[in-house]
Amino acid sequence: MSTTDPISFAEHIKPLFRQKDRDAMLSSFDLWESKDVAEHSAAILAEIKAGSMPCDETWPAPQIDLLQRWVDAGAPP
User: Fold this and answer.
1) pLDDT band at 55 (very low <50, low <70, confident <90, very high)
2) N or C terminus of the chain: which is more exposed, having fewer CB within 10 Å?
């Protein structure tokens, strides 16, 4: 995927979050719902960049960049 290709939540962002990530956050918001991730994107990105989310491993830079580009593009569905 090039940095100019459109990013889709369903195709590119949702698969970044595992079932156990979703389960851990479900009491606050749903990581598999575009609206929820968009609404909480600043906090999600901050935690991912800090390495505290997910709690068992850090995301590789390309995944963080993809999420950031999705947010920067207005968090399209």
Assistant:
1) confident
2) C
Full-model pTM: 0.90
Total number of domains constituting the chain: 1
The residues near 46 (Cβ < 8 Å, ≥ 6 apart) are none
42: in domain? yes
Q: Give the range of the structural domain holding residue 53, as residue numbers without chain letter.
A: 9-72
List, for residues 26-52, the tens digit of each pLDDT value. 999 999 999 999 999 999 999 999 998
d(Cα 21, Cα 29) in Å, to the nearest integer?
Answer: 11
Q: How far is CA 74 from the centre of its chain?
A: 13
Q: Which two tokens stand for residue 52?
A: 């505290």
